[in-house]
Amino acid sequence: MKRIKKKHPLAVRWFHWLNFPVLGIMIWSGLLIYWANDVYRLGWGDKTILKFFPDSFYKALSVPFHLADGMAFHFVFMWIFAINGLLYVLYTAFSGEWKYLLPDKKSLKEAGQVLLHDLHISKYKPPQTRYNGAQKIAYTLIIIMGLGSLLTGIAIYKPVQFGWITFLLGGYEWARIEHFALTIGYVLFFVIHIAQVVKAGWKNFSAMVTGFEVENVVVAETVIQVEKETELEDSIKARKIIQVENVIKEEKIIQMEDVVETKKVIETEKVIQENAIEVTKDIEEKKKVQEENAIEAKKIVDAEKEKIPNASADVDANQTKTLLAWKQNQKISRRKK
């Protein structure tokens, strides 16, 4: 089953297909004008690496001696190019199409991914919406380049009447260089754009013609299913990440509690040690006091011991005196008898 999907509005397709030949004619007529004074080259000093353009290039395209034709075509189609570009900018501004065209913060990264994929350097292909990041940047630059081409063209065409524009662009010579550089930019854009169209295939090209794109519903449903599965996987990954983060937080909390407990234990041990030191000091002081008391007691005992022998000696002396006195008394009594 297939489904028709609206892709490009009618106005955008008109502006696109009108601008394509007009810009081509502008480049061609500009080349006819440039032939009359082809002064630009790549190189330094007298050394030239690349000249814009060699005579063989002019002759192959029958460019020489068509200056008047080139100026006539250039100045006519300049107005068509300017009006078409102005209407395109106004349409995108008022219709809301600018939302799809203006680059966002992801566009530069996505443009790099598109470039790597197209060069077969990377297998990753960014999701394709109406315009990818590379297209947003390229289409926005084309609008800016168009404005630059108009301003530099006016500065070259009427350098006196629009002298202030010429002055702001750096003078006549710089305005001409900038105009030429922008033309090279258009050519490079054409080459890359056509290559991308060929690469994208007929379905993408026909969408710019008809405004619609035919898509396979099964493929679309498959894409939706894949996106849902991807979202589910992302959700599961996010949930796992949250669980891991919660576990880490819990472990940190436990570690913090362990640290607090350890700190409390250390403080308790410190208090116990301080108390033990105090107790030890008290015991030592008591021992010291006991030792001093023991020394005092010993001194008292020794003093008492010294007193006791003296007392015994006094008693013996008194007894001896008493005995001698008794004996003398016995002798005296015997003599009297």
Structure explained in plain terms:
Helix content is 79%, strand content 6%. The protein has 337 residues and is mainly α. Strand 2 and strand 3 form a beta hairpin. Helix 5 packs across helix 6 (133-157). 9% of the residues are buried.
Concise structural overview:
The chain is mostly helical and 337 residues long.
What descriptors fit this protein?
single chain, 337 residues, mainly alpha, two-stranded antiparallel ribbon, 10 helices, 79% helix, 6% strand, rod-shaped
> Between the first and last Cα atoms, what is the distance in angstroms?
180 Å
> Which segments are poorly predicted (pLDDT under 50) over 5 or more consecutive residues?
none
Q: Structural class given helices, strands, pairing? A: mainly alpha
Number of strands: 4
* pLDDT averaged residue by residue: 85
- What is the count of helical runs? 10
Q: Which overall shape is indicated by the principal axes computed on the Cα atoms? A: rod-shaped
Beta-strand portion reads 5-15%
Biggest sheet: strand arrangement: 1-4
Radius of gyration: 57 Å
* Percentage of residues in helical conformation: over 70%
The biggest sheet amounts to: 2 strands, antiparallel
| Quaternary structure | single chain
H/E element string?
A: EHEEHHHHHHHHEH
